[in-house]
Amino acid sequence: MQKGIDKKLLIPFITSIGFIAISVNSIFKGIDQHQTWRIVLASVGGLFFVVIAAIIINAFIKNRKTTAEG
């Protein structure tokens, strides 16, 4: 049953990593074009998705620990 939970966490994790990559690309474009607003928005958005990825990783680790214990 725990493997089903791990599979459910995979798609949101990959999606959040993709959005982090888009945010990094937007930061580089903002630096290149001297657009402070783009840098700020991409940084805030990237931070949001880093937090989501960290929560997903934490849930994955908790699922692994409960599987190993039980």
Main features:
93% helix; 70 residues; single chain; 2 helices
Mean pLDDT: 89
SSE order: HH
Proportion of residues in helical segments:
over 70%
Estimate the strand proportion. Answer: under 5%
| C-alpha geometry | elongated
Class inferred from helices and paired strands: mainly alpha
Total strands: the figure is 0
Count helical runs: 2
Overall description:
Helix content is 93%, strand content 0%. It is mainly α. The protein is elongated and about 55 Å long.
List the helices and strands and how they pair.
Blueprint lengths: L1 H31 L3 H34 L1
Helix pairs in contact: 1-2
Briefly characterize the structure.
By secondary structure, the protein is mainly alpha-helical. The protein is built from two helices and no strands.
